[in-house]
Amino acid sequence: MSSLSLIEKQKLERELGMSSGYVLGFSNRTFDDFFREVVGVSIYDSYYDQASGSKAHRTRSFWRLATDEQVLLFLNGLREGWEIYSDEPIPDSAEKLLKQIIRRLGGHSEPVAQPKDEEVQVQIDENLSQRIFSQLIELADLAPQNRGFAFERFLKDLFDAYGLSARSSFRLIGEQIDGSFVLNKETYLLEAKWQNAPTGAADLHTFEGKLSQKAFWSRGLFLSNSGFSSDGLQAFGKGKRIVCMDGFDLSEMLRRRLSVVDVLEAKVRRAAETGRPFIPVRELFV
């Protein structure tokens, strides 16, 4: 049970606009994603059912049942992602309140710095990392008609090296999925492209459409070696179930021997906090 006081809860309710039954501008999906990725709980679990089951009631249940550590994750996530979930900058009164409660609960009143290079846990040895990096370089020399399938095989080997239970390309009626893998017990579908031009909004929307036909908890990783056009990312929008990686992310990850698990977790969390599907590795790991 958290140590939030009655007054703190009432002030939070006022800042979050909970008297309407809602919480900021969260939709059902973004509310679920926020709690899963930022806080680490399934807010739509029956454990948090209360009264009407509205987002406001579920948040009150969370405050009552959560640990202080979980409440800190919730509050820090709100501070960083407020503008995404309310479509307006955080008010001074809300910023001040969140900082006060975070300090009282023993957390940081400022966002925690991203891990430095030497702080990241390396999960594969140097020889294996170099071999995988060499395979990535060799893909550029292949004929275009062979490169796509070789790229998919490379990614399966990469994910397998980090214990992500990768599955290679499979076909369903009317569509093809380039593969899948498991991260933190969540299944991700994979779309992989190696082409000359940056990936645009049309391909992103197509992949999002594939996900919409799967179970509601399905998520996706879109990996485009040539990157993503800025116009395409803007047109694609925010708050989707896709995170993105490009070729620079892959080479940077292998060159610095970053764990692909750490990289994907950082991308998923930042996407949940900001709504942006693509954050470069060089921004996540300074």
Automatic annotation (TrEMBL):
GO biological process: DNA restriction-modification system
Source organism superkingdom: Bacteria
Record-annotated Restriction endonuclease type IV Mrr domain positions: 148-254
InterPro entries cross-referenced by the UniProt entry: Restrct_endonuc-II-like, Restrct_endonuc_IV_Mrr, tRNA_endonuc-like_dom_sf
Transmembrane segments: none
Recorded GO MF terms: DNA binding; endonuclease activity
Protein name: Restriction endonuclease type IV Mrr domain-containing protein
Species this chain originates from: Marinobacter algicola DG893
